[in-house]
Amino acid sequence: QTVPEELQNGGGFGYVVAFRPLGTVSWMQTVVASPDAARYVFRNESLPPFSPYEVKVGVYNNKGEGSFSPVTVVYSAEEEPTRAPTTVLARSLSASDVEVSWAPPWESQHKGRIQGYEVRCWRHDEKEENAKRIRTVGNQTSTKVTNLRGNALYHLAVRAYNTAGTGPSSAAVNVTTKKPRESCQTSPCQVFVEIYQAQPFYFIFFVRFFLVLYRWNRQSSTSVIETNKTSVELSLPFDEDYIIEIKPFSDGGDGSSSEQIRIPKISNAYARGSGSSTSSACTLSALSTIMISLTARSSL
């Protein structure tokens, strides 16, 4: 972040960028002469992907040099995963839900990290490019796919992802959802989540998108929706407690999570109304305030 003009204390103001590979002793330095500069790119074709560097930034003007910032660790850009997840399994839970699980790919992590997995799900009579996509976060190796058609054949495939992109897809597996019950079917709750950024306006320009994480209150597995908007609509079963969190995502990775939002379970009678009709859906709204804490960007 640049130094305001009133704190530059003289002419000829600029920055000194010092950096070194993590674990080494000698610092490399370069001068950035513009007081408005907010980034510096160090290029080295022999630099391995996802290499850690220590970085600090100092200031100077015509009177001499000032102090340096605290040292922080940044990483060179990583490569996308090169192998697919293995042992993909799917099972039907109900007429509208299936569970899919997988094993991590056999891949050395020196080229980068696996930040999560993307599950694609498409009906047999649909095109694969129109598949429904669900992203998990971290080392989670199973997730639930919801809002599917009953008694229908689906194909599912999984691939790993990181900040560089997604890796190759696993072979697709097939699963057929259960037949719907003959009794009345219920409608899901439509949950509207609005995101409020509790930071100065200039932080908005560093945010590439938001991650909306939601899960059953009684389970640890988390589903993720990626959006570049400040609102999102979720379709959740009305008979389960849900926990929702919001994370901003910048070039340096994800920032701090919002406080958890609990969407309480709603009784069948409330969700469907007191009469015999089953078509009406409940509507809830939630406001998430996030204090954006951006990590250092991934390129030096």
UniProtKB/TrEMBL annotation:
SUPFAM superfamilies listed in its UniProt record: Fibronectin type III
GO molecular function per UniProt: cell-cell adhesion mediator activity
GO CC field: axon; plasma membrane
Residues covered by the Fibronectin type-III domain: 1-79, 84-180
Subcellular location: Cell membrane
A GO biological process held by the record: brain development
Transmembrane segments: none
Superkingdom of the organism of origin: Eukaryota
Pfam families: fn3
Keyword Acyltransferase belongs to the record: no
The entry's keywords: Cell adhesion, Cell membrane, Disulfide bond, Glycoprotein, Lipoprotein, Membrane, Repeat, Signal
Protein known as: CNTN4 protein
Organism expressing this protein natively: Chloropsis cyanopogon
Organism lineage string: Eukaryota, Metazoa, Chordata, Craniata, Vertebrata
Underlying gene: Cntn4_0
